[in-house]
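Tokens for chain A. Residues wanted.
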């Protein structure tokens, strides 16, 4: 019987030969676009498909059963399931997408025995990126992007909670912000998280700010520090769901203040 992930809308597509597989993990993709992928994956001219798709607002679609080969990552199709995520590689996964991917991953743990682990080695069980497969998987080194690749541990942690019967997620927005400013991603907005975010917010070109944006901590603010700062602000803006322009302006500051009021533990 075709295996469909509970909570995902099943919309079968034509782009599959229907051959069965027993997947060992899940490949994280980015759609590089917005909206459902159904029409594209159902068009024989595209010759591509994916098992699953996760929308930014929590929409969940399944196009190919989990125990059937989709056409997503060439040589990796026979050993892994695939999940497309709405949006672009410059954007972080939304909290809703993190939950959707975690639900799909937890289903794979239960149904196929997937390891609750992040991996970058093809052939190992775990949550892996499309880019990890290199040429054999179609040579997409930038898929799903560094930001989304960095959110995989958060997804696996949440999947473990689901497998263990916990209905309450960690604070995914806090975890995403913690990843953005290079502090321990425990889902608790405590003093360390607050200090790192405050350094980015103030933008005073300090060593603390360099540490928060993930560049060399030398006190010399040059082009590399500035590029890292802009990339970090863009990530934060995506997480806060405001306009992504790399400039910490009034709209970003209001969204940040609202998030801090909601999550800061003092």
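Reply:
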């Amino acid at each position: 019987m075709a295996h469909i992930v509970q909570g995902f809308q099943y919309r079968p597509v034509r782009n599959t030969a229907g051959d069965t597989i027993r997947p060992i993990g899940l490949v994280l993709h980015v759609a590089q676009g917005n909206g459902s992928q159904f029409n594209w994956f159902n068009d024989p001219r595209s010759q591509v498909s994916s098992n699953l798709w996760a929308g930014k607002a929590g929409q969940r679609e399944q196009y190919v059963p989990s125990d059937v080969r989709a056409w997503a990552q060439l040589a990796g199709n026979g050993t892994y399931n695939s999940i497309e995520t709405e949006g672009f590689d410059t954007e972080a996964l939304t909290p809703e997408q993190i939950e959707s991917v975690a639900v799909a991953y937890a289903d794979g743990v239960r149904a196929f025995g997937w390891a609750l682990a992040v991996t970058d080695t093809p052939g190992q069980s775990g949550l892996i990126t499309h880019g990890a497969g290199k040429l054999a998987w179609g040579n997409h080194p930038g898929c799903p992007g560094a930001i989304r690749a960095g959110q995989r541990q958060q997804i696996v942690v949440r999947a473990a909670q689901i497998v263990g019967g916990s209905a309450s997620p960690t604070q995914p927005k806090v975890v995403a912000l913690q990843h953005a400013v290079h502090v321990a991603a425990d889902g608790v907005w405590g003093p360390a998280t607050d200090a790192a975010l405050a350094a980015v917010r103030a933008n005073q070109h300090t060593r603390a700010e360099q540490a928060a944006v993930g560049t060399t901590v030398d006190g010399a603010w040059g082009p590399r520090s500035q590029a890292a700062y802009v990339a970090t602000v863009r990530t934060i803006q995506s997480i806060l769901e405001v306009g992504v322009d790399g400039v910490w302006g009034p709209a970003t500051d209001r969204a940040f203040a609202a998030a801090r009021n909601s999550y800061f533990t003092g």
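The chain has a mean pLDDT of 93. The CA atoms of residues 22 and 169 lie 28 Å apart.
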